[in-house]
């Protein structure tokens, strides 16, 4: 029996090695045929490509490599090849001049385990479905008139943020801005999406928030299939199975909330009653004359992407802003003075040195919402409080791993109420 088992183990090992070698030679052959069309690239190792040159912080690794190989370079992460652009001139060429050629999105990482494959707006290929969803975002879901209806929601969540921080200030306790800012963004998005708060509410929305965080952590982990292309079908780490389980749990909860909204819609809305994003999406779902017929999966996937953005990138941007301001008292004072006197017009523009929301056709449709939340939160924290770092040190601005460029260490400080500003 043991001899038979050993034979099968050896056979499986031989199959693995053969598959790797065949994959490597095919990639090498194709590379040699297209070598003239590729950007500069560091020397790569068989199978793993340039993974040995990549550290825990992806952006820092790319920055270091760009100093040697230029503003446009080719990087191979195992079986996946990508092109890295790292200056304003190249970024403008990609996002403006060649915008249409870069309008689609390749599958990467954990996308194969997403139960909404084919329904994801963020990763959809450039085509009719993507154009319809983008138009929907800009004209109804995330338009200025729609966001204007929720200004009271943002104001209320901002007040709750100030009250929570003020409680820490009264008691002389440390304030965890990571938790406070994440709660602000999540509650704002939950109330806009399904008319209920999520953080600390112990309801369906609260459970959805927890599942979104789990999905985000699992989705951000590099799959072994991305490194060893032929083994993409195997889930060696088990993260794929966990992600599917979390997504299925999310699906059940959102389905329940959707049914509640459908029942409410059948009874009819009162005159002047505000519709949330879920109500609007269900209207389009039930509209026989809609340009493209939305499915329930389309709705659930869109909401998931919206939660991802709020949980990850928006709160991370606010933490970095507060960390930089606390470490630079002159900039902090200048901002406070500006808030207390007059706030100038919006100056977002198209600066290709800094692209927090992307640009061109695939620019983030939720940029206006994100800026509203960030301006309100950072403005309130600067206007109402002074901040002191524990032990008199400066905020540690070391960047951590992950796609959202999170801080490596929690942003925890002592808030001191600024006179009677708030």
UniProtKB/TrEMBL annotation:
It is found in: Membrane. GO terms for cellular component: membrane. It comes from the Eukaryota. Its main location: membrane. Keywords: Heme, Iron, Membrane, Metal-binding, Monooxygenase, Oxidoreductase, Transmembrane, Transmembrane helix. The chain crosses the membrane at residues 6-26. PROSITE patterns: CYTOCHROME_P450 (PS00086). Its cofactor is heme. GO terms for molecular function: heme binding; iron ion binding; monooxygenase activity; oxidoreductase activity, acting on paired donors, with incorporation or reduction of molecular oxygen. Pfam families: p450 (PF00067). InterPro entries: Cyt_P450, Cyt_P450_CS, Cyt_P450_E_grp-I, Cyt_P450_sf. Belongs to the cytochrome P450 family. PANTHER family: CYTOCHROME P450 (PTHR47943:SF8), CYTOCHROME P450 93A3-LIKE (PTHR47943). This is FLAVONOID 3'-MONOOXYGENASE-RELATED.
């Amino acid at each position: 029996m043991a001899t038979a088992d050993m034979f099968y183990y050896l056979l499986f090992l031989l199959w693995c090695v053969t598959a790797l070698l065949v994959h490597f030679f095919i990639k090498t052959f194709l590379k040699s045929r297209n070598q003239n069309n590729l950007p500069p690239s560091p020397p790569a190792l068989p199978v793993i490509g340039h993974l040995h040159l990549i550290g825990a912080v992806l952006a820092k690794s790319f920055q270091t490599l760009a100093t040697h190989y230029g503003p446009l370079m080719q990087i191979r992460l195992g079986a996946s090849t990508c092109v890295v652009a790292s200056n304003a001139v190249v970024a403008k060429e990609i996002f403006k001049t060649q915008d249409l050629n870069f309008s689609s999105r390749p599958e990467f990482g954990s996308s194969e385990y997403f139960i909404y494959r084919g329904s994801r707006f963020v990763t959809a290929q450039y085509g009719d479905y993507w154009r319809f969803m983008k138009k929907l975002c800009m004209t109804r879901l995330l338009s200025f008139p729609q966001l204007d209806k929720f200004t009271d929601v943002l104001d209320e969540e901002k007040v709750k943020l100030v009250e929570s921080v003020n409680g820490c200030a009264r008691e002389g306790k440390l304030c965890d801005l990571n938790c406070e800012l994440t709660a602000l963004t999540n509650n704002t998005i939950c109330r806009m999406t399904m008319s209920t708060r999520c953080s600390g509410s112990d309801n369906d929305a609260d459970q959805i928030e927890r599942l979104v965080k789990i999905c985000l952590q699992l989705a951000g982990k590099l799959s072994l299939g991305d490194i060893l292309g032929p083994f993409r079908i195997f889930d060696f780490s088990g993260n794929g199975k966990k992600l599917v389980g979390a997504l299925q749990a999310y699906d059940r909860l959102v389905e329940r909330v959707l049914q509640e909204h459908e029942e409410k819609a059948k009874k009819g809305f009162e005159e002047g009653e505000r519709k949330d994003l879920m109500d609007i999406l269900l209207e389009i779902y039930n509209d026989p004359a809609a340009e493209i017929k939305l499915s329930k999966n389309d709705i659930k996937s869109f909401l998931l992407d919206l939660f991802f953005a709020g949980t990850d990138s928006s709160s991370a941007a606010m933490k970095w802003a507060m960390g930089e301001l606390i470490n630079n008292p002159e900039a902090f004072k200048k901002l406070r003075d500006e808030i207390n006197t007059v706030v100038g017009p919006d100056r977002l523009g198209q600066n290709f040195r800094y692209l927090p929301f992307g640009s061109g056709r695939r620019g983030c449709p939720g940029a206006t919402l994100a800026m509203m939340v960030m301006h309100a939160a950072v403005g309130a924290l600067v206007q109402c409080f002074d901040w002191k770092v524990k032990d008199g040190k400066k905020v540690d601005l070391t960047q951590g791993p992950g796609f959202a460029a999170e801080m490596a260490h929690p942003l925890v400080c002592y808030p001191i109420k600024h006179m009677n500003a708030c």
